[in-house]
């Protein structure tokens, strides 16, 4: 594995890991008052675009990072949307 690929995996790990505390906090407390619905919607679409791009160029660091980040962002997004309905 090259240093470039290792750097990609490290970046993927760190940026995906950054969303774990927000997703965990949101799931546990159901307090999403500080979460912006438009921001998370746009962010999730952007992450989906990065995932598609990663698939198109067959880049596993991009695919791995954006798959995990998309799941975590969608959890927060789902909780925010379902909170607004109540």
How would you describe this structure in keywords?
mainly alpha, 4 helices, 86 residues, Monooxygenase
CATH topology: Monooxygenase
Q: What quaternary form is this?
A: single chain
Query: How large a portion of the residues is in β-strands, by DSSP E?
Result: under 5%
Mean pLDDT: 88
Please report the number of helical segments. 4
What CATH architecture would you give? Up-down Bundle
Considering DSSP H and I runs of 4 or more, what fraction of the residues is helical? over 70%
Distance between the termini: 49 Å
- The gross shape turns out to be elongated
Walk me through this protein's architecture.
This protein is an all-alpha fold and 86 residues long. 83% of the residues lie in helices and 0% in strands. The longest helix has 25 residues, at 60-84. It starts with a helix and ends with a helix. The protein has helices spanning 3-17, 20-29, 37-57, 60-84. The chain has a single domain, classed as Monooxygenase (Up-down Bundle). The chain has 4 helices and no strands. It is elongated, with a radius of gyration of 14 Å.
Write the layout of secondary structure elements.
Layout: H1 3-17, H2 20-29, H3 37-57, H4 60-84
Helix pairs in contact: 1-4, 2-4, 3-4
Short description:
The chain is mainly α.
């Amino acid at each position: 594995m090259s240093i470039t690929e290792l750097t990609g995996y490290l970046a993927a790990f760190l940026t995906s890991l950054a969303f774990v505390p927000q997703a965990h906090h949101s799931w546990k407390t159901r307090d999403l008052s500080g979460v912006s619905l438009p921001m998370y919607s746009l962010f999730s679409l952007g992450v989906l675009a990065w995932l598609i791009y990663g698939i198109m160029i067959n880049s596993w660091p991009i695919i791995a990072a954006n798959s995990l980040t998309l799941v975590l962002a969608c959890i927060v997004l789902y909780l925010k949307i379902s909170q607004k309905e109540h």
